[in-house]
Amino acid sequence: MPIATHVSTETEPAARGRELGRARRAELHAAFGRYDELFRAEGARPGQVAGWGARALAETRAWAPALADEMTGMAEGAGLEPWQLGALNGRTEILAALAVTGEGECSAAVVLPPSGAPRTVQTWDWHDTFREGMLLWSMDRVQTFTEFGVVGKIGVNGDGLGLHFNVLRHASDHSDIGVPVHVVARRILDEASTVTEAVELARSARLSASSVLTVVTYDGERGDAVCLELSPERVGELPVGEDGVLLHTNHFLDEKLAAGEQTTNEVSSTFDRLPGLRDRVSALDTADRTERARALHSHRETGPGICAHADHTLPAHLRWESLATLSLDVAAGRLYAHEGGPCRIEPDGWQSAPFESDE
């Protein structure tokens, strides 16, 4: 099935949220139901999620009030409680509060050629039961691949800035819910046009969970990129090297932050996937997004498992699958999404929601 799409016609945040909520009421209710089930499977007690969701919304209102308005508008339009939208946007923070470990998500690669636009690709790995929760959303001058109810994730804006997203787990993660990392991603897409601006925004948020945002920019002549390893302890910066290559999976690479790494070989393939990406750099250095995505075709039985498939002998909350493959064209301001992992990539399978100005 293709990934669901939505093009916003409203530009005021609360109205934009209400518009999406009304248009996708059933999908938003289903999204909360899936996460509520996941939280309970991971040990959430009655009342905890409501409290954490309310706190995530409050932290968003303090740091990014326009996005809090969008979230409450979405709740109103869909007939949900505002805290439920807080819980959806704070899903990474809630899972960190529950001290969840597991496979992790996603492998991302950026290559900056000597001339021309950056070349990017990533897998989005999550529980296979969340397949119907994916959304490709176009608004104003931002496109984002996200989940129903979540204000942003992977995306690109009209200023030539794009963002990839991978989860991390750190010893400093805690249950005093901070600004959701998904809110940080969206605000960067909304407001930043340079790597420096993205770094400043990320450093201004009080966090309670960890993730890495790979920010990539292009000014029409040259590209730039940085991995921002977000954690409650600090934000680490990993600039692109002289070789123009920036790769990340689901463990910390910043030397200081790596001392608090909470992901292990026993639960995750991340330590195999990163060298697997390095082995594929020459194949990733192509202007053809289909060929870049196909370069990530590697299953765990025969390689580093960059393309993941669910083990249906496990319970739903322990199963992982590459649900989508994404590529950013920051020169054109477009995000391309393909349903499924790298082994399913076809040239005509890419989706890209147009900006409003294109319609």
TrEMBL record:
It comes from the Bacteria. Residues 120-268 form the Peptidase C45 hydrolase domain. PANTHER family: BETA-ALANYL-DOPAMINE_CARCININE HYDROLASE, PEPTIDASE C45. This is Peptidase C45.
